[in-house]
């Protein structure tokens, strides 16, 4: 996914779909006006005759990591009580909610992915206040549309969550009000806590890198699925690619990490084209920016720009090769100790000179690259990189001095994704370039001595892309 702002590669948006702390559990089931009446005899009958079933839940691999992360976070605020809510459901319409996706920091520090839970860290102790499966002594389990087991599915019990995550679990209805004198920092409102939480997530450990690698590998399969189905793509257009990729994301991951950008023809010049309603037409390019989110919520973020006919035209190839050269320069700049922005600057250097060679710049490339000018950016628009992890635009609330103005360190993962975009109505470029958008994006791990491309299994050079398409179609 490309950068959220055109102006500043520094700025990131928070992409959590979770809301703020969930409401404490109420004994009133959430029902709808069209639900049938529940006479006392029916309710009484429903509450009897159920077996109790506790599952043996293995310890989750993140449990020990999360415990260590909590210690580090607590050490940053030794006197305070830290509250990290998972968030609750978001309404889509009336009584219909979106599928739940927990707050990133909540899951990072607890491992929990169930809704409405609240992680509390205090005096070195952590408690997860969770909303466990329905008891049988209220109507909830057969009447509540949101949490009722017979409506929404079985939630884990408190014991199961505790066994899995190695943390003390209490019912969220017992969440204290915290109205004592102690300072309470709630992640949803406390900027310092949010900042530190994001800064702690910048460097990924070996388990996280494995999760990101897996997300990239499944993402590559999703791209392959789309190309294999090219006849249908030509018939149904962008929608078919979106659906094909989504199927792979659901089959082997948790979800897509962000709305897929499936941009045929001039739609590719719209940075975040997520309508995906257009046709895929012969002779044009199609820009695909898609990423699978794995079961532990780490997401890939990969872009390829493909020739619809399987072969680039000479004009398309020249532009593609220029973007690839810029991307390679950006990737080559990635190593520990260099500024985060080094990849951006290396890529923009290549693109500005390329635009100059095409005779498009009103000034020299050197003048255009001056931070006070940046006129080349009419055709590059966005920053080259952002951090990647559990959020596609990861760690966006870190202190700007650390990210993006700081340096790269071993274990960080960032995208390198330069692009060239010639709008359909741009009168300053030759007509043959108008409506062409090209972006190439890979997910780059900073290693001790350089970097590793986690998404390298997808072809990048123009000839490799053609060979790959020819093999799969
Ligand atoms: Mn991206």
UniProtKB/TrEMBL annotation:
SUPFAM superfamilies: Creatinase/aminopeptidase (SSF55920), Creatinase/prolidase N-terminal domain (SSF53092)
InterPro entries in alphabetical order: Aminopep_P_N, Creatin/AminoP/Spt16_N, Creatinase/aminopeptidase-like, Pept_M24, Peptidase_M24B_aminopep-P_CS, X-Pro_dipept-like
UniProt domain Aminopeptidase P N-terminal: residue ranges: 61-194
Region (Disordered): 1-36
A molecular function GO annotation: manganese ion binding
Top-level EC class: hydrolase
Alphabetic keyword roster: Aminopeptidase, Hydrolase, Manganese, Metal-binding, Protease
Family stated for the protein in its record: Belongs to the peptidase M24B family.
Catalytic activity: Release of any N-terminal amino acid, including proline, that is linked to proline, even from a dipeptide or tripeptide
EC number: 3.4.11.9
Superkingdom, taxonomy of origin: Bacteria
CDD domains in UniProt: Prolidase
Protein name: Xaa-Pro aminopeptidase
Cofactor(s) this protein cannot do without: Mn(2+)
Upper taxonomic lineage: Bacteria, Bacillati, Actinomycetota, Actinomycetes, Propionibacteriales
Cellular compartments per GO CC: cytosol
GO BP field: proteolysis
Coiled coil, from the record: none
